[in-house]
Specification:
By secondary structure, the protein is an alpha/beta fold. The protein has three domains: about 25-95, Beta Barrel (Elongation Factor Tu (Ef-tu), domain 3); about 140-370, Rossmann fold (3-Layer(aba) Sandwich), CATH 3.40.50.300; about 375-505, ATP synthase alpha/beta chain, C-terminal domain (Lysin, Up-down Bundle), CATH 1.20.150. Helix content is about 40%, strand content about 20%. The chain has 16 helices and 16 strands. It has an eight-stranded mixed beta sheet, with helices on both faces. Strand 11 (about 190-195), helix 4 (about 200-215) and strand 12 form a beta-alpha-beta unit. Helix 12 crosses helix 14. The protein is elongated and about 110 Å long. The protein starts with a helix and ends with a helix.
Length: about 500
């Protein structure tokens, strides 16, 4: 046997010894399609959450794994899928584009632009599902995230890296608080992500218009899964927004993400689960409804300095009916988050804006994430407001009140009046400090209720123009030192006389 034959035999032996599976592509066949869900046979090694491609041009996500079949939900309802169509694995989990290129843009749940400003050339992408940072990778929440809303920053402070639930009935101002919080982050070095889930397109357009008018879109990303989108897009949108925020957090930046709202997110998950024939539980929600929200919100945190010190602050919004915060989804989220801000429809109808129920609202981070200046002047205000609510209910019976109770009612009414804020009327922590200083030191007791807000606004304006050094000292030190407090006492006494004279002349 010559050398050529031996060489040929060795090549054949080597070819037969190499595993043939490396050259094979795993494909599946659509055997059934209904309600935007495909049953596919053949994808035996598919992963949960894997992106698959149909020969007809559509794409889908693997969301159910059976012994012989996988269930795939289509991403695009407009591209038809037929039985016997070939499905191919991508061997990659579903990813969303991330990066600075998204700032100022409006995208859908899978990263496609919706604002008509052309394609988004992101250089990186990340899977929408990720494990929450370990406890050793986190640091305590100590830096405040200012909302510009006095009743929240003063009584229910939010820290960078916290998860604070915003809960209330329909049309009680939840989205307004979210928008004002985004607007207040201007020049605060905070990137904002607003995830709109299940809302009307007209509402989203108004929100984007408001942000553009106030110059907030330059540091904001809008991710939209409106009411017309599929349940899959509404479900995926929250995780997509969280992934975009995590990208900035791992760069050492501070991020605020608002999920508006997770009640629609839960409904979308329930729809998907029922279509997948998963067993329903309480209120027809699947058994993992708690887990889908916990694995989302646990990703919000303050990273340790060794990992860059970035933070992701989550404000999930939840809508309830008839002020029932004890229903299934709200109680789940209350147990997951670090506190809740509850909006009261009775306060809203009484003209109190924002309609925050101070007695029921709580922040489990509390004063640890509050500016020292605000903390010093807040005093026992929350307790006084709770006492005011009790006395107000008692006084409606027509009973005679003691002088001390009358004083408590009068002081509570002034506090409520002071904490009122209109839409887009944000206050810096210095303004809030001056407001609360006047209340704590009882300088507002001598004024009628309708004079409280004009007086405090005029006083803050007076400080900024005439005594700017005091204002700057509080701004830079973030404290209310003794000498500054003494100076404020003198300024208030002088200003009160001039304000009283001007009010009499008018």
């Amino acid at each position: 046997m010559n050398g050529k034959n031996l060489e040929l035999i060795s090549l054949l032996e080597r070819a037969f010894q190499e595993p043939l599976e490396n050259d094979l592509e795993e494909i599946g066949v659509v055997v059934k399609i209904s309600d935007n869900i495909c049953r596919v046979y053949g994808l035996l090694h598919a992963m949960y959450g894997e992106l698959v491609v149909f020969d007809g041009g559509n794409k889908g996500l693997v969301l159910d794994l059976d012994e012989d079949f996988v269930a795939i939900i289509l991403l695009d309802q407009s591209i038809p899928v037929v039985e016997q169509e070939i499905v191919r694995r991508t061997k990659s989990l579903f990813k969303i584009p991330v990066g600075d290129e998204l700032l100022g843009r409006t995208i859908d749940a899978i990263g496609n632009p919706l604002d008509g400003k052309g394609p988004i050339a992101c250089k990186a992408s990340m899977p929408i599902e990720a494990l929450a940072p370990e406890i050793t990778h986190r640091s305590p929440v100590t830096v405040p995230l200012e909302t510009g809303i006095a009743v929240i920053d003063g009584l229910i402070p939010i820290g960078r890296g916290q998860r604070e639930l915003l809960i209330g009935n329909r049309n009680t101002g939840k989205t307004s608080i979210a928008i004002d919080t985004i607007l207040h982050q201007k020049n605060q070095n905070v990137i904002c992500i607003y995830v709109s889930i299940g809302h009307k397109q007209s509402n989203t357009v108004k929100l984007i218009d408001t942000l553009e008018k106030h110059g907030a879109m330059e540091y904001t990303i809008i991710l939209v899964a409106d009411a017309q989108d599929s349940a899959l897009k509404q479900f995926v949108s929250a995780y997509s927004g969280c992934t975009i925020g995590e990208h900035f957090m791992h760069q050492g930046k501070d991020v605020l993400i608002i999920y508006d709202d997770l009640s629609n997110h839960a409904i979308a998950h329930r729809e998907i689960s029922l279509l997948l024939r998963r067993p329903p539980g309480r209120e027809a929600y699947p058994g993992d409804i708690f887990y889908i929200h916990s694995r989302l919100l646990e990703r919000a945190c303050k990273l340790s300095t060794l990992l860059g010190g970035g933070s992701l602050t989550a404000i999930p919004v939840i809508q309830v009916q008839n002020n029932d915060i004890s229903s299934y989804i709200p109680t789940n989220l209350i147990s997951i988050t670090d506190g809740q801000i509850i909006l009261d429809p009775d306060l809203f109808n009484a003209g109190v804006r924002p309609a925050v129920n101070v007695g029921l609202s709580v922040s489990r981070v509390g004063g640890a994430a509050q500016t020292k200046a605000v903390k010093k002047v807040i005093g026992t205000l929350k307790l006084e407001l709770a006492q005011y609510e009790e006395l107000l209910a008692f006084s409606q019976f027509g009973s005679e009140l003691s002088k001390s109770n009358q004083r408590a009612l009068d002081r509570g009414a002034r506090a409520i009046e002071l904490l009122k804020q209109g839409r887009h009327e944000m206050l810096s922590f210095v303004d809030q400090t001056l407001y609360l200083f006047l209340l704590k030191e009882r300088y507002l007791d001598e004024f009628a209720l309708d004079q409280v807000r004009p007086f405090v606004k005029a006083f803050v304006s007076y400080i900024k123009k005439i005594n700017s050094t005091v204002y700057t000292e509080i701004l830079t030190s973030k404290e209310l030192r003794h000498e500054v407090s003494e100076a404020l006492h003198k300024i208030v006494q002088e200003f009160s006389l001039s304000f009283a004279k001007s009010s009499k002349t008018t």
